[in-house]
Design brief:
Radius of gyration: 35 Å
Number of strands: 19
Structural class: alpha+beta
Low-confidence stretches: none
Number of helices: 24
Helix content: 55-70%
């Protein structure tokens, strides 16, 4: 006979093993999910900062002048800037453009020192001395030189010290030349006669100083200085904003999933101990004794769950990285586990769940036994009218914040959080209203279900309706998983598709060949085209010129614009421009933006002018007719003419060739051979650039998939545990149905109908709320089209339904084989 409070508490685990284990599992899953989310969030943000560090190195800000200001940083100004007390270190950089090997003009050149700050910015390792240089690998290939060999820069001989990696940029990677700062200063002095110390200064702020405050102090030296903060770069701002939105929404939803898992799985535990409370209170147990019993039980379960949840998160973190790299054959940046943070989160979860458990226990210990029994057997939600008011208020509040963000708020940050808050409000509003309308909705479906699925399914679903309160958390858990799936996969897919669209706009065709010399190119466009179309597998090739400037004359006023020459007939056959456009020599094809700006239309004849260097003035040079107005021209050009136009001048040169190929890999090999004949050509492939651009996106995408996979497993285990507990609590009902008319097969149908119904309702609700949330969040960037990842969403739905069938058909079959007399004698309490 058990006499102690501790003995009574521990006997609960002995007599209710399944309930105790399922409750511990819910804590394990919830703690693991929260830790995984926090680790994922920190590592995703760190990965983003690592990307920026690759771009900008260790610098916090750069200081200099815009080229059009015609100002230089001399010794006096350099001293005034670098004397600021908040500067930890700085590096002077000189920018210019130099000629290499008497062929490659205007190569972007950087004069650098040998400190760690500039090395982190431009990613070189060895020190540079006088008459030493570094160039990127693609330029070295064009020059046919290797490290250690010599090149000529502005008629001086330089030794190549190191080859730099090509910039993994979207589109065509630029060439770069690094030389010592002293050499760069010497070249600038010889050309301009100016003694320059730096074009701009890389600055690393002290850890104790805010870079923004430091930037404001430097600006006081000269208001005309251009100061760029690495953290204010457009790329970083955009990525940080999208990261913050994604992680904020994901955090709220993940915490909601964790809460639902705990509530759903502890529902049976709470139901069980409340009945036992009533019995023990009736036998004379005091409120303090009841509270101590629950305190011991809950503390033991939550402590074991929190420790195992921490271990599960740690093992998952290691397992995920290995699996991603193995399954997808990609390198993934290491996701650090951060054990201190994980322990803190595990302890916080322990405290919060413990409080969550003890509050209802404390309240029940103070209530009379009969009142406990009545409350425990409630099947409906109390205060449904109040829930309606709250739910509709949230949705209306969400709509208000959408209008507020669209019409009132000024500034990107406030608008972002306005739409973010609106999306969360609308989602929770739908969740609050869902239980209120679920039972009436199922009542209306009953006749249809009876006529389609039969009497057994009709009875099954009719029995579900009074159980709405008990199983709402199950459906909401599945719904939240679907929201995260839809929102996260859509955001990732949209970013990826937008990146692809940008590259398609850059490339137009699957291969683009460009000239490194630009305006200095002497290549004949027609000859290059002739050489390319001879290659096997070429479907078409069209050439485009460098931009040239003309003037549109209106009412004796001259308006400058850039035009491009191209092989219009071939471009039409490649689909780069419309095949329906009929044009003649010297006619123009203009963009709609150009037509709107200058108020011209198709068929108009416009007067053209140009600037004459000898006379130093603009003069009319002729007329041209507008053949067509199109929505968009390749590479966002505004005006195009054919190569045969009389407006082609001596400054016009080959810029690029658009190549359509049936066999891209084979064509690239042939073009490499052609490049041996024309070294100035640079070959770029759409697929290669897309692969580079998607490298980091794919890493995030696979990590997101891994997180979703963990969530799916956690949700399935949690939801299936809850459903099994609920089915166990209704075994007497199933036994009664078996005594009346339902056979063993009928029991399986009843159980499976209920289980599949819960999952389908959860999927439907989650799909609705997830789509609404995604569209609301997409209002932040109205220019971006949403791309839903339907295959991935479909896979998650199929897994939920498929695993339910795999788990519950054997479970229901086993339950249907138990003797009816045994089932009727069970105490479901």
């Amino acid at each position: 006979m058990i006499k102690s409070i501790k003995g009574v508490s521990l006997r609960f685990f002995y007599r209710n093993k399944f309930i105790a284990i399922s409750s511990i599992i819910s804590v394990i899953l919830s703690v693991s999910l929260i830790i995984t989310l926090a680790i994922f969030s920190i590592n995703a943000k760190q990965t983003l900062h690592n990307e920026v560090k690759k771009m900008y190195g260790n610098m916090d800000l750069s200081v200099g002048y815009n080229p059009e200001q015609n100002k230089i940083i001399d010794r006096v100004l350099l001293q005034r800037i670098t004397d600021q007390p908040g500067i930890q270190s700085y590096s002077n950089v000189v920018l210019t453009h130099l000629n290499i090997n008497h062929t490659y003009n205007d190569i972007y050149t950087v004069g650098v020192e040998n400190d760690s700050l500039v090395k982190s910015k431009y990613h070189f390792h060895q020190d540079l001395s006088a008459n030493e240089a570094m160039i990127n690998k693609s330029l070295a290939a064009a020059l046919k030189v290797r490290a250690g060999e010599k090149i000529t820069i502005e008629n001086e001989t330089f030794k190549i010290k190191e080859l730099l990696d090509n910039l993994d940029a979207s589109g065509v990677a630029p060439d770069i030349l690094l030389i010592s700062r002293d050499d760069a200063k010497k070249f600038i002095a010889a050309e301009t006669g100016k003694q320059i110390e730096a074009t701009y200064i890389l600055i690393k702020a002290k850890k104790s100083d805010n870079p923004i405050v430091l930037a404001n102090e430097i600006r006081k030296v000269d208001q005309g200085l251009r100061i760029d903060l690495a953290e204010e770069n457009v790329y970083l701002k955009t990525n940080l904003t999208s990261h913050q939105i994604f992680m904020t929404v994901l955090s709220v939803l993940m915490l909601f999933v964790s809460s639902l898992l705990i509530i759903a799985n502890f529902e049976v535990f709470l139901y069980k101990y409340k009945n036992q409370f009533a019995i023990m209170r009736s036998l004379g147990a005091t409120s303090k004794q009841m509270f101590n019993i629950v305190f011991i039980q809950s503390s033991l379960m939550v402590m074991v769950g929190a420790v195992l949840g921490f271990l599960l998160a740690f093992l998952s973190n290691q397992f995920i990285q290995n699996c991603i790299q193995k399954w997808f054959a990609i390198h993934v940046d290491t996701m650090d586990f951060h054990p201190k943070l994980a322990l803190l989160l595990a302890f916080s979860c322990f405290v919060l769940i413990e409080i969550f458990m003890l509050i209802p226990a404390y309240r029940s210990s103070k209530v009379l036994p009969l009142k406990i029994m009545q409350e425990n057997e409630r099947n409906d939600f109390a205060n449904s009218k109040f829930r309606k008011v709250i739910g509709y208020s949230m949705i209306i509040g969400g709509l208000f914040f959408i209008l507020f963000g669209k019409l009132v708020v000024q500034g990107d940050t406030y608008q972002v959080f306005s739409f973010l808050f609106a999306g969360i409000l609308i989602t929770f509003g739908i969740f609050v209203l869902f239980p209120v309308y679920l039972a009436p909705f199922l009542h209306k479906l009953l006749p249809l279900i009876r006529s389609i699925l039969g009497r057994t399914s009709f009875v099954s679903i009719k029995n579900v309706i009074p159980q709405v309160r008990k199983n709402t958390f199950v459906m909401l858990t599945i719904s939240t998983l679907m929201i995260i799936t839809i929102f996260g996969s859509t955001l990732m897919e949209t970013i990826k598709k937008n990146q692809e669209q940008y590259l398609k706009n850059e490339y137009q065709t699957n291969i683009v060949v460009t000239s490194r010399l630009n305006y200095d190119s002497k290549l004949d466009p027609m000859e290059i085209k002739k050489q390319i179309v001879k290659l096997s597998g070429i479907k078409g090739a069209s050439t485009v010129s460098t931009p040239t400037q003309l003037d549109l004359i209106k009412a004796d006023n001259y308006y400058s614009f850039d035009y491009f020459l191209g092989d219009l007939k071939e471009m039409a056959s490649q689909g780069l421009i419309s095949k329906n456009i009929k044009f003649r020599k010297n006619q123009l094809i203009v963009s709609r933006n150009f037509a709107k700006k200058f108020k011209v239309k198709a068929g108009d004849t416009i007067r053209l002018g140009n600037f004459f260097e000898a006379e130093q003035k603009q003069k009319p040079i002729g007329k041209a007719r507008i053949a067509a107005i199109v929505d968009k021209l390749p590479l966002s050009f505004d005006v195009m003419m054919d190569w045969s136009s009389k407006y082609r001048n001596q400054h016009t040169a080959l810029d690029r060739v658009f190549i359509s190929s049936d066999n891209e890999k084979h064509t690239l090999k042939q073009l490499e051979a052609l490049k041996m004949k024309y070294p100035e050509l640079e070959i770029n492939s759409y697929q290669q650039s897309l692969k580079k651009a998607n490298k980091m996106i794919d890493q995030r995408l696979y990590i997101f998939y891994a997180v979703i996979a963990i969530m799916v497993v956690c949700v399935m285990v949690g939801v299936f545990n809850t459903l099994i507990n609920n089915i166990h609590s209704k075994r007497k009902e199933f036994a009664i149905l078996r005594t009346l008319s339902i056979n063993k097969r009928g029991v399986i149908i009843v159980i499976m109908t209920q289980v599949i119904l819960y999952i389908l309702i959860g999927i439907a609700l989650g799909s609705l709320a997830g789509t609404a949330l995604t569209y609301v969040i997409s209002l932040i960037d109205t220019g971006s089209r949403l791309h839903f990842n339907f295959p991935f969403i479909g896979i998650i739905m199929a897994i939920l339904i498929g695993m339910a069938i795999v788990v519950f058909v054997p479970f229901a079959s086993k339950l249907a084989k138990v003797k009816i007399s045994t089932e009727l004698s069970l105490d479901n309490k």
